[in-house]
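[09:14] KT: can someone run the structure on this one? pasting the chain below
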Amino acid sequence: MIQNPILKGFCPDPSIIRVGEDYYIATSTFEWWPGVKLFHSRDLKNWEQIPSPLRRNSQLNMAGDPTSGGVWAPCLSYDGEYFYLVYTDVKTKKGRYYNTHNYMVYTDDIYGEWSEPLYLNSIGFDPSLFHDRDGRKYLVNMVNGFKGVLVQKLLRTEGEEETEVPFARKKPGWKLFGERKKVYNGSGIGLIEPSMEGEAAPEMFLLKMLFTAATLGAGFKGGEIVPSFCIGGTFGCVMGKLMGFSPSLCTAVGMTAVFCGVTNCPISSLLISFEMFGYEGMPYFLLTIAFSYMLSGYFGLYHSQKIMYSKFKT
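[09:31] RB: done, structure tokens below
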């Protein structure tokens, strides 16, 4: 019987592949050296650590990287000929804004040397490599600020004369080609920021509400909180402009009110409002959170939550 955790200790962000009868896992190492830990198993129960792919300074230079920076969420893949590893080197991180550089290395022997890195972009993190059935490859990565997911074609340019170069000196013969296509518009943060400036389109809160309801109704779970903030923020911005109030204040009030209504957690909502927006709007936060809590029923977003006492009787 397999017992969790299958990898003990510091092994975050696992990326797993199967090659024949062998399984391989790559995990993040953050600011620790060497970069990326690799593990091998034949039965998914017993794992052994094998040499790390990023063990030359030319592959990963983390000088000046902050604590919890460095290598994030590597993606390991195999196309029948080569093993590929794409990874992010996080140089700075302040709030939601990171300085992130994405790279790719590859090898024909996962136990041996890996190539020199190919620089990909610096527009986000959590990169992945998608291998299509026709042999084409695409880079997929999130946009900084959680503002969507981009896809771009990766073309091979390596000539035959370069194939005999040892992998320790080989530079990947690939390049990104064509336009970046956004296949996912993001969690809603990209709509919240303009709402704080009074620039939310009137239909945004309704569209986001419909799409979120359809997604939840189809059975998908996880990540519901940011869409809730988005719906409340855009609605608050629109109503604030209609009534002549400050759009930024109404955006903040709308975000906390909808969050309270969704989660049925008034105290947490109030604390979050203070943390995000300060204490100047306290009377407005208290009033809207109280009304939201009274009108939100006895069930929250999660079915395991049920309020057993009356909200109206003392």
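[09:33] KT: thanks! DSSP finds six helices and twelve strands in the chain.
[09:34] RB: yep, looked fine to me
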